[in-house]
């Protein structure tokens, strides 16, 4: 039989967070090494537990969750999502505006498959959560990266966005709070982003999965509330991060704005949703309780709470390393430090991360894996307990010292 090759569609698709760096980590593990994996924002392996009510809900509903559901998701969960946005400034959110998915990831790929025609340009932040770039490419579109400004707390550079708009530009992706930078966008910046979308007739895709992970009084505003009635906005969120159940695969997308102009698109999205039958049904049952119940994430994001303390510790320790500067995260689960190229002349940051892994048995992700153009950043997940995090950053500091001396 002939050799079977992957499709040409995949040729330019990358998802480095789980790419060659992870393969190398797994090879080392197979050799017997213990690797501390700080490449994926997955709370469970670091001792975080889901709220009890969520697990009780899922267990309780298992017997009645054996069949397929409506392909958009169960009615009670979609209603809960609509009500959540109604009470957060979107009075017009309706159950029919909500689609549930196996995590935000599935919804991103479904929405882009439905929306993008060959050659459409989609504005995506740099750095980004790389699924966005990969899913645009896989849908036949062209991701066009706009710069977020490290010197301005990683806020999006509005002038850069404006300069990259062409007649082929169809949508603007916003990730707020941001992975990998931890930035939370100001109201002025959100207004600026919406204004660009309005003037250039762009749809907004707003990924808000970290909306509840906010530090030091940072306030998150739903882009959709800024976009109002005349800019079509798709808001993505889910249970993975605030409710610590990445593995249950449960997320949603809400359509808002001039929905009457999106009828054809929504028919297409329903078709795509039908084709994958429905999202995992037991996990859909957790949504209503999660959104309506006690928000235990609030205990994690204040001083003394693990999300907060670990993020602040990581930020401080990283900034103490010579030649390293890191913008303090205002939310999410990551630090995205810069390695001064004068001190660390890195040509290939994926190779650099692999060398760090081999030498110190710590896995982080290289900045170019987030579509950052220069090989001078890496992303660290701030999920380990403080003693483990201290040890890990200590080993990174050792590696960097050796790198400087070499
Ligand atoms: N969007 C962003 C910005 C993320 O960081 C992640 C996961 O890390 C996702 C989406 C995917 O989330 P889910 O587990 O809901 O698929």
From TrEMBL:
<keyword id="KW-0032">Aminotransferase</keyword>
<feature type="domain" description="Aminotransferase class I/classII large">
    <location>
        <begin position="35"/>
        <end position="393"/>
    </location>
</feature>
<dbReference type="GO" id="GO:0004021">
    <property type="term" value="F:L-alanine:2-oxoglutarate aminotransferase activity"/>
</dbReference>
<dbReference type="GO" id="GO:0030170">
    <property type="term" value="F:pyridoxal phosphate binding"/>
</dbReference>
<keyword id="KW-0808">Transferase</keyword>
<dbReference type="InterPro" id="IPR015421">
    <property type="entry name" value="PyrdxlP-dep_Trfase_major"/>
</dbReference>
<protein>
    <recommendedName>
        <fullName>alanine transaminase</fullName>
        <ecNumber>2.6.1.2</ecNumber>
    </recommendedName>
</protein>
<dbReference type="InterPro" id="IPR051926">
    <property type="entry name" value="Ala_Aminotransferase"/>
</dbReference>
<dbReference type="Pfam" id="PF00155">
    <property type="entry name" value="Aminotran_1_2"/>
</dbReference>
<dbReference type="InterPro" id="IPR015422">
    <property type="entry name" value="PyrdxlP-dep_Trfase_small"/>
</dbReference>
<keyword id="KW-0663">Pyridoxal phosphate</keyword>
<dbReference type="InterPro" id="IPR015424">
    <property type="entry name" value="PyrdxlP-dep_Trfase"/>
</dbReference>
<dbReference type="InterPro" id="IPR004839">
    <property type="entry name" value="Aminotransferase_I/II_large"/>
</dbReference>
<comment type="similarity">
    <text>Belongs to the class-I pyridoxal-phosphate-dependent aminotransferase family.</text>
</comment>
